[in-house]
Amino acid sequence: MKVLLVDDEEELVVTLAERLSIRDIDADWALSGEDALRMAADKRYDLAVLDMKMPKMNGLQLKVELQKQWPAMRFIFLTGHGSEEDFEAGASEAGDEYYLIKPVNIQELVAKIHASFDAGEA
Amino acid sequence: MSLFEKLKPVFWKDDHASGLYKQLFNYRRLWKKTALISVVIVFLPLVLLTAYEYKVTKATFESEALARSTRFVAKTRRTESFLLSKKRFALEFIIHDNTYEQLLQPERLTALLENLNRGLGLFADLGVIDATGVQRAYSGPFHLENADYSGQPWFKEIQNRGIFISDVFMGLRNLPHIVIAVKKTLPDESFYVLRTSVSIERFTEILSNEQTGEVGDAFLINHQGVLQTPSRYFGDILTLAPLNVPEFSDHTEGYQLTDIGSRMASISREGGAKPLPAEAANGTLVVSYAYVENSPFILMLVSPKDELMLQWRQTRMKILVFLSCAVGMILVVLLGVVTYLVNAIYAADQKRVMMLHEIEYSEKMASIGRLAAGIAHEINNPLAIINEKAGLIQDLFFIKEQYKQDTKLLGLIASIVSSVERCSVITRRLLSFARQSDANVTRINLRKIITEVLSFLGKEPEYRSITINIDIEDGLDDIVSDKGKLQQVLLNIIKNAFAAVEDGGHLAIAARKAKDGQGVELRIRDDGCGIPPEDLAKIFEPFFTTKGGRGGTGLGLSITYSLISEMGGTVRVTSEKDKGTCFIITLPLTMTANKG
Description:
The structure holds 2 protein chains of 2 kinds. Chain A has helices at 10-22, 33-42, 59-69, 84-88, 106-121, and strands at residues 2-6, 26-30, 47-51, 74-79, 93-94, 97-101. By secondary structure, chain A is α/β, with parallel strands linked by helices. In chain A, α2 runs parallel beside α3. The model of chain A is unreliable at 87-94 (pLDDT under 50). By secondary structure, chain B is α+β, with helices and mostly antiparallel strands. Chain B folds into 4 domains: 1-59 and 313-438, no CATH class; 98-203, Beta-Lactamase, CATH 3.30.450.20; 207-308, Beta-Lactamase (2-Layer Sandwich), CATH 3.30.450; 442-596, 2-Layer Sandwich (Heat Shock Protein 90), CATH 3.30.565.10. Chain B is built from 18 helices and 17 strands. In chain B, β1 (123-130) and β2 form a beta hairpin.
């Protein structure tokens, strides 16, 4: 399972990638949409974890571009704009995407990645 | 509370907010100005018209009163004149019907006197005087034969004028008399005179009270101003009347006399004249007079003007009563209408101010919301980094055996992670607050929203030892309403409750299904200072505050009221001084969306 993490906060994305690796999830990271597209052009990723709010290209725009290359790719969005209601609902689900609120709980993220991946396999 | 306090319209208070909430008008001044203009416009013509009518009517009554007085004098003068003339003509007839010789016969003279008294009455005697002034024959109660009148002024006068009527004098019998004498000239130019004394009883009768009314005084004076008949007020007979002798006129004339009191002091009242009533003496007297033809008499009628104007005074009273009633009624209606109109403008203005305030309030909430969201988002990113870094350390510790056993380090990391978790709860709450600035009908759990609102209020209850008891009826489902509005409502009421209770006070928040089953009833009860009964009706009015200069805008509860209305609910309040206050809010289970 290959996961691409995209967030403009380097400290966050690097650490998150390392934590996922510890949990046996192979995660690459990128700091912008452009980097992510470049990386996705060379390598197939099963799932992308995207920050919603990034300079130049936001998470949703990036998703559209990535889907053009990899239509089967799954997505999890991270947002800093979640409210308490969203938090209690676990995460909003729109279609087959997940939204997680920063700061994320690693167990939850891992669970979503697996759930998403399983859904992709099904 | 005075009557004015009770009737005082709501706009009368001196409450002029400034800035955005400034009222459009100073309503007290507006009311005064409108009332004044209306009163002037309505009453000025009314007063002018009434004043004119008053003047005209008074003049009419006055001239009518004078005319009545004048008519009486004219009529009485004719009667007096006729009485005198009858007597005079009788003498003329006798002197021409009898020869001098016949008249000198005592029997004849006595028979004539008897006939005169039978026909006309009141003749006291009858005498014949020759050209030398000696009375040649006399019939009467005294012995006046050969009395010599040659030196008396009247004898000289009759030689010139042929007729003489004397002033009144007290005769030998001490009764008022006049003398009437006629002259007959013989062909040889000699003459003789027929003279009689006549009692003036009849003249006096004509002038009696019955004829002149209660206060009017009619009498005769001679050309020297001496009373010839008794006067009721102006002195005894043959005394000088305290009135000037009026100018001669052929006709009946009248004039007015004021302040005669001082002149009345000196008059003689031995004969029975009464004092003139003080109000008449100090007021105006109307004097009508006429010179009685062929006599030395002037007929006078003196009436107090007040008496003559009695009818006018009665009419005037009616006019005044009518005018007062009309003015009173118009004034009540006018002021009522002005008050109603100003009140309507005031109400519209209040509504405008209220709406402005609501707009500003929601703008403010939206701004705070945006600010909160911005801050929360900005904090979330570094928080996420701390979270991941700490998480990574935790992960590494679990992986590496040497750290796995170090409980102290693991504890420190767990503490960082849990603090991050606490911070994230705060940021989520801020974001949650931000969302509520928009109308947002959603499913609300009452217990949760109450807890949330209490958490907004921080640690105040804890510091002040205020006990809060939340009691939600079992089986009460969530309600669907505007969460932001409900939060604001609860926040306002609970904040007020905190302000009302003493340290160590109690606050009970209870929710249960409304009796009709269609809604939910929230009761927020405190055991604070309570609201005085006179304020209870006003607490939902905009700008009503008891906090004075301590930061109260007087809008909290009025906004609460309108928010509850917007949610389709109602609110009422019960309170007892020093025992506490209870707000009872009823909300529909499901809020109709268009109300948001």
